[in-house]
Protein: ATP-binding cassette domain-containing protein
Amino acid sequence: MTTLEFRNVTKRYRVRGAGKMLALDDVSFTLESGRTIALVGQSGSGKSTIAKIITQLERQSAGDVLLDGSPIPRSGRGLRRYRQQVRMVFQDPFASLNPYHTIRHHIERPLRLDKVVPSDEIEGEVRRLLERVRLDADSTIDRRPHELSGGQRQRVAIARALASRPSLLIADEPVSMLDVSIRLGVLNLLADLQRESNLGVLYITHDLATARHFSDEIMVLNRGRVVERGPADDVILNPQDDYTRALRNASPDPDRHFARTTASPAGAADTEGAPA
Ligand SMILES: Nc1ncnc2c1ncn2[C@@H]1O[C@H](COP(=O)(O)OP(=O)(O)OP(=O)(O)O)[C@@H](O)[C@H]1O
Structure:
């Protein structure tokens, strides 16, 4: 069991000519393997700042971020091990993959860096990871990102994140840049992988309906403060905070229901896994 804990975390950004800007105000939560927490809030509420602190792109101004009770190491093997355990899926599958490199290269890299398998098993492991994200390995492995659709690229990004066999996955708006018709397929895939690997997932989203469906718990952020949290159904069906109610009322369809979340063969839930 792996646990990532935010304990009273505050983040102030220095803004030129305007002093400091409070982006996170005393935020505490615990993400553990096997559970999915959705982090919801309007633009500017601080969601990405939490992701940046977790991935060490930013440092908190105050408070503690602890992995299994210890502060995140700042350098060396400890930091490498932390980065292997906590992986990120970014919003933009177009920007997060290097256009000059093949899909094979993208997935091989973390396998080599983290010495996940012996060298002679890397090829097989790349193929296995592609199949895990329901991509056809033969027709995908030697392509470059621009030869794939947005949904296929995001599947490659997920395969790359899983390559290091992490315990926790931070998914920052993982489907918001994808065509609406294929979003559900990618979210179902993430849900399947979460269950198969007992991952802890922090699902950052604007979308209350998918937050409810794909998460155990929802945490609502407003201007850097957690204003409400609780079991997903409770937060959506019976919001206690005015801001959550406003978010819910502004949401196009917060009670929307979704089809199954069990593993599907490539192409069953959407056609993104099929070769182009
Ligand atoms: N590097 C930075 N320097 C100064 N202010 C920043 C910086 N990054 C974020 N902010 C400010 O911090 C606040 C929180 O931003 P953040 O990006 O975390 O919000 P968000 O909820 O992720 O928004 P979005 O959904 O639009 O990505 C915003 O007011 C933003 O303008």
About this structure: The two ends are 38 Å apart (CA to CA).
